[in-house]
Amino acid sequence: MSKDPPELASPPLTARSILLQTGYLTAVAAVAVATGISWLMFPFFELANLIMTYLLAIVVIAARYGRGPSVLAAVASVAAFDFFFVPPYLTFVVADTQYLLTFAVMLIVGLVISGLTARIRRQAEAGKHREQRTAALYAMSRELAQTGAVEDLVTIAARHIGEVFEAEVTASLADIDGQLQITRHEGGLPVEQDEVTLSRWALEHRQPAGLGTDTSASARAVHLPLMGHRGSLGVVSVRPRRRDIFKIPGSLRQLETFINQTALAVERARLADEAQEARVRAETERLRNSLLTSVSHDLRTPLATITGAATTILESGSRLDQRTQQELLESVRDEADRLNRLVQDLLEMTRLESGALQLRRDWHPIEEVVGAALGRLAKSLGTRRVTVSIPPDLPLVAIDDVLIEQVFLNLLDNAIKYTPPDSAIRIIVSATDRSVTAEVADHGPGLPKGQEARVFEKFYRAASDSRRGAGLGLAICRGVVLAHGGRIWAHNLPEGGVAFLFTLPLTDPPPAPLPADA
Amino acid sequence: MPDPVVVLIEDEPQIRRFLRATLTGQGYRLFEAPAGAAGLVEVGSRQPDVVIIDLGLPDMDGIDVIRRLREWTAVPIIVLSARGQERDKVTALDAGADDYVSKPFGASELLARIRVALRHAAGASHEADESAFKVGELQVDLLRRQVVLGSMEVRLTPTEYKLLTILIRHAGKVLTHQQLLREVWGPAHTDQTHYVRIYMAHLRHKLEAEPARPRYLLTEPGVGYRLAAD
After folding, report:
1. Is the pTM of this model over 0.95?
2. What distance in Å separates residue B193's CA from the closest CA in chain A?
């Protein structure tokens, strides 16, 4: 019994008939063996004991091969017993009529035993089968629980259901609000028009259709809706390799259990997606508000200064002394500069975010880009010590020089804004086979603890920040570096100050070599 | 020498007003045109010493105005353009403009560009090729092909020297990569812009005290190079 192969419970038709044939043959053989044993026992035992040998053979056949072969064994046992052991021997003729009662009892006992044994066996098999499906269901549930994406969920479910029910499985999802739109197919089931119609029917009517159901029972596949609490989520179509599989009691119900598990998982994933979308919307909304607040404040402050200074000079210029006039004019110039930088940052950020940014890559020495940035900032750098360390054999890098200059400008501008006017700034560039790394480090107060990654977010400004800026500079740096396929990060230095680092990949083949210099 | 004549082609009245104040205050005679077509007429009738043109004009593309002007005049043309429009600047320069100023700009920056343009125009018309160039510590004797930095003579390869002489010929003016490539390597190599960058790097390492903070060989990212003139 324990050696039964698992597919014995529901073997394919041909395998089953082969098994039955062997059963009948074995039944005949078992009776022959019992007869042989009885022949050896015959001189020493009562006839009643020989009957026991036959009953044993019947039990074995019933347990192993079920009803048919065991009935054959019972009948054959009676016949063999009569033929060999009931006088007159070697004929079916019975001298003593009381043996007829023996035969009748023997046959009845044999049939009852075979019936009972076969039933026990069926129940054991059904139990084992159930246990296997429960284990399979558990395996599927566990895998579904570890999966987040709806598309992956249906793929997993289709695979499991296909394995357990030996079927080709297609899982189709209805889109979020539409009922009819089947958006996705998984698995090997060919999409035949009839089956598609049936699966749509199942989706719309929220009940199973096709093979083994009340609707179009002649179809080749069964279509079960994935029911969530807000309606159908999709349809799973199952086309078993054996049409009779759903005739086995309870197997359609077991399939429904699988489908329900899948539906639960899909619904959970959908709800999680919706919650995530809601979070993203809320975050976008928050960012937009923060942008409006930030931009309106940052635009108005310099405008207020410019308007104020200009009107003061216009209305009472002649009464102001030379120095005051000079100061007012300088503030107009400085605030206009600030406004210009802000507008530039906003434009740059918009370009980066809208995807309108097109890199104009060409081969550049990093040194040249650093030099251009330092040149542009000469005035604001003032008397600061800037040390630059770039290996002379650094390879050319394929970059958009205007944008990478912007990265250096923003990083240097940051260092200038957040460090005392006499502190030093250092720029270090190094290269490996695969990338170039640039570092801009200062000796300022460093970043607040735990904020090293947040500084690259849009509109981030240190809480205590009295210095002004839109909080876009580092976000632009990140956007530009990412667009180049590089990475950017920041960390506080043990000796004080902060280092901003970014990498640029060296993936492209190097440019054509120079002609000989003659 | 009479006051230099400037034609300004610019559609923004506020910018015209500010430039009028700046330029007339510096002794230039200014004629204004609010659009491209009017600008072409103005340049034809006034015979200016310098043309200043905004690339964004209401009636025609500023670059087309430059091309039309270059069909018949070599007058220095200075372009006004916004930062972030490097491509337009290069197109304008390659179409024949002499230099550019990024908006917003300070008066001193524009005046410096005009002075350089006038100096080059004067040099060209007198055909008096200067035989020596000097900026900061850098001295170049073009007759003896001698480059001296401070008191030390610097050895340059033929290509480096050729690149340097072209920069000297246009000192103070921006030169695009294409212009430099054409002049040093010839028209067959105009897509190999990295030649220029590599030789500029060589020159910087020979002529600059700090190659990463150049004083003479300046880079204009996205546009080209400029040799400091003063």
Report:
1. no
2. 8
Q: A499 near A493, Cβ under 8 Å?
A: yes
What is each CA distance from A244 to A123, A130, A145, A208, B150, in whole angstroms? Answer: 19, 18, 32, 17, 100
The per-residue pLDDT for A463 is 53
Class of the CATH-defined domain B132-227: mainly alpha
Residue keyed to tokens 């940035």: A373
> Which among A429, A454, A457, A456 has a CA at the least distance from the CA of A441?
A429
Give the one of A344, A367, A511 whose C-beta lies nearest to B201's C-beta: A367
pLDDT > 60? residue A181: no
pLDDT digits (tens, 9 = 90+) for A451-473: 777 888 877 766 555 455 667 88
Q: Looking at chain B, which residue has its C-alpha nearest residue A366?
A: B212
Residues in chain A, how many? 518
DSSP at A319: G
Contact, A73 vs A57, CB < 8 A?
A: yes
- Residue A264: enclosing H or E segment and its boundaries? helix A251-316
Annotate A268-292 with b (16+ C-beta within 10 A) or e (fewer). Answer: bbbeeeeeeeeeeeeeeeeeeeebe
ipTM comes to 0.88
Would you call A364 and B204 a contact, using CB atoms and an 8 Å cutoff?
no
The dotted CATH code for B5-126 is 3.40.50.2300
Listed by start position, the domains of chain B span 5-126, 132-227
**Residues B164-218: tens digit of each pLDDT:** 999 999 999 999 999 999 999 888 877 788 889 999 999 999 999 999 999 999 9
Among B158, B192, B201, the residue with its CB nearest the CB of A518 is B158
Candidates A336, A365, A517; nearest CB to B201: A365
Q: What single string gives the DSSP state of each residue in A100-152?
A: HHHHHHHHHHHHHHHHHHHHHHHHHHHHHHHHHHHHHHHHHHHHHHT---HHH
Q: How far apart are CA A488 and CA A503, in angstroms?
A: 7
Which residue in chain A is spatially nearest to B226 when comparing CA positions?
Answer: A372
For A205, phi then psi, to 5°, come to -90, 0
Nearest C-alpha of chain A: how many angstroms from B86?
8
- Domains annotated for chain A, with CATH where assigned, are 6-140 (no CATH), 165-274 (3.30.450.40), 277-354 (1.10.287.130), 362-505 (3.30.565.10)
